Structures are given as structure tokens and as C-alpha cells.
Amino acid sequence: MMALPDAAGEALLEVEHLTMRFGGLVAVNELSFVARRREITAIIGPNGAGKTTVFNCLTGFYTPTVGRLALRHPRRTYFLERMDDFRIAQFAGVARTFQNIRLFPRMSVLENLIVAQHNTLMAASLFSVAGLFGLARYRHAERAAIERARYWLEKTGLTPFADDDAGSLPYGLQRRLEIVRAMCIEPVLLCLDEPAAGLNPRESAELNRLLLAIRAEHGIGVLLIEHDMSVVMGISDHIVVLDHGSLIADGTPDEVRSDPKVIRAYLGEEEDELPGDVAADFGRNHGEGQA
Questions:
Q1: Which of 167, 185, 203 finishes a domain?
Q2: What is the mean pLDDT of the chain?
Q3: Does residue 98 fall inside a structural domain?
Q4: For residue 253, which of 39, 50, 99 has the smallest C-alpha distance?
Q5: 71 found inside a domain
Q6: Cα dihedral 8→69→251→283 (10° resolution)
Q7: pLDDT in tens, 131-145
Q8: What is the widest separation between alpha-carbon atoms in the chain?
Q9: Number of folded domains in the chain?
Q10: Does residue 138 sit in the same domain as residue 275?
Q11: For 92-117, how does the pLDDT look when each residue is reduced to its tens digit (9 = 90+)?
Q12: How far is CA 253 from CA 47, 71, 85, 285, in A?
């Protein structure tokens, strides 16, 4: 797998004054934050806060009304607001999962991981010519794609299911497959939209371990939308909180969980700190969810 330089703490994504309007509706309003390399940044907030709209702007589904979205590679900066969605994935190295699982259900697990590498394979095949004649450059790229897929199968315990249809997997394994399929493009930024949705506590803990391993071993940045606070507080280095499209808090898990504006947004009232039952959801024990 590709080894990235040790660049912990460097700015990876700089979002400046992001605004997204739909007619008279302002879904995101003047949002600015920084996500760093080798860190997990969570974007949280009540329903309708604008979290998925932010992801849609970052990945090219929407063109922002206003704003600059700078993704900093070691030798080049990509301005995502100026790029088509397929170029953001192919050239800028932004991979994404969705709230609803979007696997190819009738393809095998292994085929799902290989098809994610379609752009690389097509380039190596000279758009089918080298593949048709079995030229060495294509054979090498094909072997590399299979090896990368096998790596992620082993990493996630999916090897026994490699030949099974992806749609036949249990729900938790489908979630895991979707994440590692995104990793097969070797992104610099992995955007996960509610990856813990529908998971039981054991599966959420396994998700935590996977995301922490991805951060530690592959040196990328992870941007996470999530409602499961045991996941958010258990693995995030940095949390951005939105309410009605606007930034209300930006800091560490400890800073965010005690911020009066965050408490007010979630509870509709201001307290010195979260009540006990709500604090449990926010993972007061910072290590919760990592076991």
C-alpha cells in the first residue's frame, strides 16, 4: 500500500466562507474550518444542520454559492469548488461513502473492490488497447489492483466472503465493505456520511477500530458525519458543530461536549454541562467505543 509522509498536524482541507443557497433557503452559511492530515474531523449537529450539504459541496454534487474549498497535496492545491465531481475523486483524491449503502449488490465483494479502481485500470489499459492485447503495463496494473483489494479484504476480515455477492452480506459487513472500497482509490481525504447508522454496539466498536487504523497506518484525513456520539467522541481529534447551517463550535471533543451553544442546539436549553443520560450518548469517557 502507498506510504504517505509523516505530516501530522498539517492542514489538509481548508474550508473558507462556504455558503450554499437553494433559492431563499440558506443550507450552509459562511462556514469556515480546517481539517488536518492524519486526523479524524467530525461534523455534527441536529437534523437539518447542513452536514450532508457540506459533503455534497466538497465532493462536487453541489457547486457552492460562495466559498473556497482548498485541498492541499504536498506539491499542489486543488480548489474543489472549481472541479467536476469525477475529477475530485480521480485527481484530488477525495473518496466518499453515503448515508444509504451504495454497493454493487450483484457483484462479488472482490469485484466491488476492483471496480473502485476502474480509473487506474483504464489508464493502464490505454482505454482498452493494452488490456485487449495483454500488454505488460496492464498486467502489472491488474495485479496491483487485485493485491490492493486482497489487502483490504484481509484488513477487515472479509476474505471468507470474497466471492459472495456484496448484497448478500450482513448489514454491518456491507458498511465495512463500502468504507474499504473507498480506500481502494488511495484517497488523501475520506468522507464518511453516517458510517455507524444501523450498526449495533459491537459493530460500532469494530468501525472505530477500523477508522483509527486507517488514520494511523495510511496517514490520510478522515471527515466524518455521525449521530452516534460514542463513535464521534471515541475517535475524533477535532469536531465541527453546525446548527441551521452555521458554525456554533469548533474544537476538541472535551471542548465541544461542554460548550453551552452545543448543549442548547441539542437540548433546547443551556446547562453548565450535559445531563447524565445525554452525557452518556456523548461518550463522556473519551475512550468509549474503542474497545
A1: 185
A2: 86
A3: no
A4: 39
A5: yes
A6: -90
A7: 454 566 666 878 888
A8: 70
A9: 2
A10: no
A11: 999 999 988 999 999 999 999 999 88
A12: 20, 24, 31, 11
